[in-house]
Specification:
Helix content: 10-25%
Number of strands: 26
Mean pLDDT: 90
Distance between the termini: 43 Å
Oligomer: single chain
Strand order of the largest sheet: 14-3-2-17-16-15
């Protein structure tokens, strides 16, 4: 059964919140224990991917795995765990790195917040819980950059399924919200869902009152409902799955799924509150080899070594920062920061991309305040166990006339005629241009929220629409400008710097 109720924005920042307790077998390692262990692999960054990689490596009991994570493990933190509070951690210094871009000329020289999760679990503990996939051509394009045939949709799909456990109930009610049978793009039941993976995934069981109206309005504009957007065609109007465990009503994210809910692995050692500052490199006859990591813990510097590999999983901002601090990157950038170049690799920190969104807010809905945390704490259900999940993904042909599409493709070509042949950017441009003409790949997205996202006022109700570009043409960079490993990098995404994005 699905319930439709009026929605509200209630003063999340002005009320005391309570966490539903959950147990976890994870025991993070103390400093002495971490330093005294001999590691086969060291994973830098215990985020969305880092925790998953470390956990999978530790499944081989003969290997010792070390994880270095700058943030803390926020077990039983209501802001992290409660789906209804998703987004409240953004800008919170205990949860968010809070990176700022340099002033962006196309955005009135504003510094743009670039949130990244600073906690065990990374941004999987900070994001808004949507759990989806791209379209098949987007993954197949990876073959452009690597000859290994294992990097395409068909090869990756089994691993997508292995990572998730999709609940059979609640079911997706959008078939009932979509009144016209002709308004279905895909009506079949999902065929590509994993059922036994570590991350618990589900549909909402409660939907805000405007959702059926939003569905039917978009249908009337020609945007068809896609009941199975995870099977290779992610376009159309979709009800996104969410990383919510319906057995508890709480967020399911990497440390919960890959560690807490698994048998304790004595060979997995996680040190939190430790920020990696440098990869230790050693010259050998065959080249330069990573042998360990330097890290900062409570204002002191320490080294730890690995016998096999160092795996950098510090995200799109801090992975290039670590490489440059270690002497791997553009030689001129390193020289300006006072770093000796060990490997001149000009691509480090380049090709930085970020999705810009336009926000539309309406505050004409009826206010409704009949929600209590006590109900959520007692049952793990109710509005606090839900998150908005109505989204639409538009191929370019569904947004514009053929003449306008041709004009946009010309703008795209003009924006991408500067890359050297066979460079990373030129190869990306070939793939993106193909997507612009595809009916199976989205060029823009629309996300519906039944609450205010920008300066909401207590006692008021809102709906918000986010409109964004899926594959921007703008490219920027992130680089160090200091040898200080704790100084934030200089991030310039060059948002909306190309006419195509405008």
């Amino acid at each position: 059964m699905h319930y439709r109720i009026p929605w509200l924005f209630f003063g999340l920042l002005s009320v005391k919140v309570f966490a539903i307790p959950r147990s976890c077998s994870l025991q993070t390692t103390d400093l002495d224990g971490f330093l005294s262990t001999k590691y086969d692999y060291i994973v830098v960054g215990g985020g969305t991917a880092g925790v998953a990689v470390a956990s999978r490596l530790a499944e081989s009991g003969g290997l010792n795995i070390g994880v270095i994570e700058a943030g803390d493990f926020h077990l039983n933190d209501a802001i992290v765990d409660t789906p209804g509070f998703a987004g409240q951690g953004i800008g919170n210094q205990s949860l968010d790195w809070g990176f700022l871009s340099v002033p962006q000329p196309s955005l009135e020289s504003r510094n743009i917040l670039l949130s990244r999760g600073k906690l065990l679990g990374g941004s999987s503990g900070l994001n808004l819980l949507a759990f989806g996939r791209g379209s098949k051509p987007e993954y197949d394009a990876w073959k452009t950059f690597i000859s290994d045939s294992g990097w395409d949709w068909n090869s990756l799909l089994p691993f997508f399924e292995k990572s998730e456990s999709v609940a059979k109930v609640p079911e997706n009610p959008f078939a009932n919200f979509t009144l016209d049978p002709k308004s279905f793009l895909i009506r079949s039941s999902p065929r590509s869902n994993g059922l036994n993976g570590p991350v618990a995934v589900s549909f909402d069981s409660i939907y805000a009152e405007p959702v059926p109206t939003v569905v039917q309005t978009l249908n009337s504009l020609g945007i068809k409902t896609n009941m199975d957007p995870r099977d290779g065609n992610a376009t159309g109007l979709v009800n996104s799955l969410l990383a919510i465990d319906r057995s508890s009503g709480l967020r399911s994210y990497s440390p919960i799924g890959y560690i807490c809910n698994q048998q304790q692995k004595s060979n997995l050692h996680i040190l939190t509150g430790a920020q990696a500052t440098k990869v230790l490199l050693q010259k050998t006859k065959s080249g330069i080899q990573a042998t360990g990591v330097s890290f900062n813990f409570k204002s002191q510097s320490y080294n730890v070594t690995s016998s096999r590999e160092v795996i950098l999983s510090a995200g799109s901002i801090q992975t290039p920062q670590l490489l440059e601090l270690s002497g791997i990157g553009n030689a001129s950038v390193l020289a300006n920061a006072g770093i000796q170049t060990l490997i001149n690799l000009p691509g480090v920190g380049e090709n930085f991309q970020e999705q810009p969104f336009q926000i539309f807010v309406d505050d004409q809905l009826q206010t409704f305040f009949g929600i209590t945390q006590l109900f959520f704490k007692a049952t793990g259900t109710g509005l606090l166990a839900q998150q908005d999940a109505t989204m639409a993904f538009f191929p370019l042909e569904s947004l514009s006339s053929p003449e306008r599409v041709a004009t946009l493709i010309e703008l795209f070509d003009n924006a991408n005629n500067t890359g050297a042949p066979n460079s990373l950017q030129s190869l990306q441009s070939v793939a993106q241009r193909t997507w612009l003409k595809s009916s199976d790949v989205a060029s823009a997205e629309l996300i519906f929220f039944s609450r205010g996202l920008v300066d909401p006022q207590p006692g008021e109700s809102y709906i918000t629409m986010l409109a964004g570009i899926m594959h921007p043409a703008s490219r920027g960079s992130t680089h160090i400008n200091s040898s200080d490993p704790l100084a934030p990098p200089v991030i310039n995404p060059q948002l909306l710097s190309k006419d195509f994005g405008m």
